[in-house]
């Protein structure tokens, strides 16, 4: 991560709030079929490392969405809170959750090979295929 930001936010109903100590300012869009099914479109998210503090943890539901990550959401309102890597515990969080949205820059798109043709972003970003994402982030066994 480059110059890190700090931030906080909460779910729609307020049952869960959080503070992230080290947010990467680079926004990434994930076009994978799971993210699109989870939220109805691409996931626009930022990497937050492991230093995320939650209040209202009893209201967080976890879904083991793959062998390498789980997803967390509010049990009450359904707000998507995070995507957490099992190896290392890093949180990837939707950028829209943060109360202060200044300082972010949209720089990357992943699973670009799974993006449907019905939308496209005008921003010039780096792109990665599913294979490239797995090669970079999936632990080798």
| Secondary-structure element order, N to C | EEEHEEEEEEEEH
CATH arch. level architecture: Beta Complex
Portion in helices: 10-25%
Q: Within the largest sheet, what's the order of strands? A: 6-7-8-9-4-3-10-11
**What is the total tally of β strands?**
11
Rounded to an integer in angstroms, the radius of gyration calculated over CA atoms is 15 Å
Overall description:
With 141 residues, the protein is mainly β. The protein has a single domain, classed as Metal Binding Protein, Guanine Nucleotide Exchange Factor, Chain A, CATH 2.170.150.70. 11% of the residues lie in helices and 40% in strands. It contains two helices and eleven strands. The chain has helices at 33-39, 130-137; strands at 5-10, 17-23, 26-30, 43-47, 52-55, 60-63, 69-74, 80-85, 91-94, 105-110, 126-128. The strands form two sheets. It has an eight-stranded mixed β-sheet with strand order 6-7-8-9-4-3-10-11. A hairpin with a 5-residue loop joins strand 6 and strand 7 (69-74). It is globular. The mean pLDDT is 93.
Provide the fold topology:
Elements: E1 5-10, E2 17-23, E3 26-30, H1 33-39, E4 43-47, E5 52-55, E6 60-63, E7 69-74, E8 80-85, E9 91-94, E10 105-110, E11 126-128, H2 130-137
Parallel strand pairs: 3-10, 10-11
Antiparallel strand pairs: 1-2, 2-5, 3-4, 4-9, 6-7, 7-8, 8-9
Structure at a glance:
The protein has 141 residues and is mostly beta strands. Helix content is 11%, strand content 40%. It has one domain: Metal Binding Protein, Guanine Nucleotide Exchange Factor, Chain A, CATH 2.170.150.70.
């Amino acid at each position: 991560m480059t110059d890190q930001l700090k931030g906080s936010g909460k779910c729609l109903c307020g049952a869960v709030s959080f503070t992230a100590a080290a947010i990467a300012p680079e926004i990434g869009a994930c076009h994978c079929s799971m993210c699109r099914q989870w939220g109805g479109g691409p996931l626009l998210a930022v990497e937050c490392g492991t230093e995320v503090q939650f209040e209202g943890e009893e209201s967080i539901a976890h879904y083991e969405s793959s062998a390498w990550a789980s997803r967390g959401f509010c049990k009450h309102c359904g707000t998507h809170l995070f995507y957490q890597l099992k190896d290392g515990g890093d949180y990837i969080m939707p950028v829209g959750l943060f109360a202060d949205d200044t300082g972010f820059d949209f720089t990357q798109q992943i699973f670009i090979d799974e993006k449907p043709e019905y939308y496209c972003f005008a921003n010039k970003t780096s792109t990665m295929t599913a294979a490239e994402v797995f090669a970079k982030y999936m632990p080798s066994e």
